[in-house]
Amino acid sequence: LVKMPLNELIPVMNKLQEAFAPLDIPPVDLPQIAVVGSQSSGKSSVLESLVGYDFLPRGSGICTRRPLILQLLHEEIPQDYAEFAHINKKFTSFDEVRRTIEVETDKIAGTNKSVSKEPIILRVHSKSVLNLTLVDLPGLTKVPVGDQPHNISEMISTMVREFIEKPNCIILAVSAANQDIANSDGLQMARMVDPDGSRTVGVLTKLDLMDQGTDARDVLEGKVYPLKHGYIGVVNRSQRDIDTSKPMREALKAESLFFQKHHAYAAISGEQGIPYLSRRLNNILENHIRLHMPEISKKVKYLLREAYEVQERYGGECGQTQREQRAIVVSAIHRFCEQYREIMQGNAKNSTVALYGPARVREIFLKEFRKDIEEMDSEELSDEDIHTARRNAVGVRADLFVPNSAFEVLVKKLIQKMEEPATLCVRMVRDELKQVLEDVTNSCNEIGRFEELKERVNAECMRLLWDKTKEAGEFVQNIIDMEVAYINTDNPEFDKFRSGVYKLMAAHQSHVEQVDQSKEREMKSELKDGKDKNRSVVEAEYLLRPPDTWRTHYLKIVDKELLILVNATDEAAVRTVPLESCSIALKAADDNRVRVIEINITKRGFISSSVESVMLRFSSPEQAEKWEKKLKDPANSMLRMSMAPQTVLRTTKLTQREALEANVLRQLLEYYFKIVRQSVMDSIPKAIMLKLVNSLQDHLYPHLMESIDTDNDEVLAELTRESEEVFRKRKEVQERVKALKRAIQVMQEL
Asked: What is the 3-state secondary structure (H, E, C) of 381-418?
């Protein structure tokens, strides 16, 4: 490119413009010169002078209504001619060129003087021109005339700005010298997109029409509004010259004489006029092309790769036969399943925002599900829960160690609580797989181009996902039920732990019994010696009717309540009698001695009341009389006596032995539950992977192929019907690829 002659760069750029012409928006900002000015600035005359022929539409109002890409090609040929890019014909008559421009303009922009941004490409081959490419834009206007759209001014301004705001566009701002340069529409528009004037060339027309005694020397020298490429003055043909068809050659001679003889312009006449403007623009454009050509080449290659990707998204033409349509559907389903498989194998969507797909499934297993399970322990069961379960399991029998039935009841209760986090884990994995399926459905090009096929595939995927979720949920439930169905207390680890706990419990229980016996002996000794360490103790009996039997117990008065204890050292009572709501009376025993105390407790109900009696028999009338006073005036007291057995409710405070047994049972529960917890944390993820994740992936393709009838002509036609939008976009991208490939070919010729 560096060694390429400058005069060959512009023809190459012309070919690129032709390659991109079919596209509404050229994908590459090509170096070009855009001619900007008001309708009365004389820009059409400047262009005709550069070409050397009258070929542009003329008349009142707006004449240029479509961008005209004018490619001037210097060739040593016997006769000049013009060509339109879209018409396979050589025009030797430039009057015919004008008529063709008018026809093509009306065809696209209409006959009401409206405008269109779709360009017309005109090539002029001549030995009298320099290689140059210009874009003639509609003249800027202020007020609509005739039947022009009311917003014609805005439409033209927007179109012009879209062309000249591109960084690679050289702006040729045409202004009339007989008007104040500050009011120039062309310069004002150029200044909006090129405020420092680095890519603007100023052209002053109508220098010969300025008031006598005035000139534009200061403007031409850049003293009023400086531009990097400066200003060039020209003298166009007058309307009379145009009407009389004055030859261009004579007009150029007259222009040259004007500058040479004018006192203000004689010194700079060599840098004014149409010939100099042509050379200057040629030089500016060629240097601009040389500067930006490597960048253009790089961008075209990038855009071609991008266009290929988009073209692949929309695929080829829809099949017409059943065989072709079936091949399209099968290929689309296969590609869809492959994309899903790639994601589930961790080979897609490398997001830095959140975990996705298989990574998210692993996160659910390792953190959320594991956390929920590990937070579960036997603390959910209170000591009272454990003690009550144990007492119910023992029944009327005594039990030295922990009964199996109590252990099983409690541990099953703990295991069943794992159902909720296990079920939640299944739902969370299902939701993640649902998101992956929806993403693949939306991103798979082969599926997305057919709306009906996309909806059908999505519906079948959801149906399969729900079926697999149900299977996985049932399998997970079976795992929990399996753990509940058989409590394996013969587990080697648990059996070893249980044996150790039982030994410690037996040793501790033996020690407690020794302490209790010591206290009992001490109590009897105190009774025999008549000692009373702040409490009244006496032997007595209690009558139970029926079966008329007595049981020995102890009495203790605390906070105006009579506590009935089995042993003197017990802290928890088996019966509590409120002394404030009862009547107390002495009665004679069977031996006619007054040594029985009858306590009547009144219970009031919603409809009627009832009276419950507690009979206490003491060893002597003196003791009975003494305790009658104590019960009527309650004070702390301890008495060993006989009591008729009553129904024992769940106590709120455990004895030392009961607390020991509850603690032992809790340790066994915790250890066994730990074993089950580890098993469940390992089994549930495996079950979900087997029955949901892997099963969905394995059955996805067979399910879609089975559920979608690919042998039915009507179904295939419906599934492969494209929407108008997809059809249009595919055509657009095909045109884009064609244009970019042509551009690559042109640049390869360099």
From this structure: CCHHHHHHHHHHHHCCCCCCCCCHHHHHHHHHHHHHCC
Give the side-chain half-sphere CA count within 13 A for 616.
29
Helical axes 404-416 vs 656-688, angle rounded to 10°: 40
Q: What is the Cα gyration radius of the chain? A: 53
Pairing of strands 575-578, 609-618: unpaired
Please give the structure tokens belonging to residue 522: 């001490």
Parts of the chain with a pLDDT under 70: 1-9, 21-28, 59-62, 146, 313-320, 348-353, 377-404, 494-549, 559, 566, 569-574, 603-609, 634-662, 723, 749-750
Structure tokens at 203: 């052209």
> 172, 35 in Cβ contact below 8 A?
yes
Tell me the C-alpha distance between 187 and 285, whole Å: 19
Burial of 43: CB neighbours in 10 Å, binned 0-12, 13-18, 19+: buried
423-478 per-position pLDDT tens digit = 999 999 999 999 999 999 988 878 877 888 889 999 999 999 999 999 999 999 99
User: Encoding tokens for residue 508?
Assistant: 């501790």
Instruction: Give the residue from 481, 474, 478 showing the smallest Cα distance to 426.
Output: 474
Buried b (16+ CB within 10 A) or exposed e, 601-622: eeeeeeeeeeeeebbbbbeeee
For residue 437, count other CB atoms closer than 10 A to its CB: 21
The alpha-helical segments, DSSP class H, found in 269-357 are 274-314, 322-344
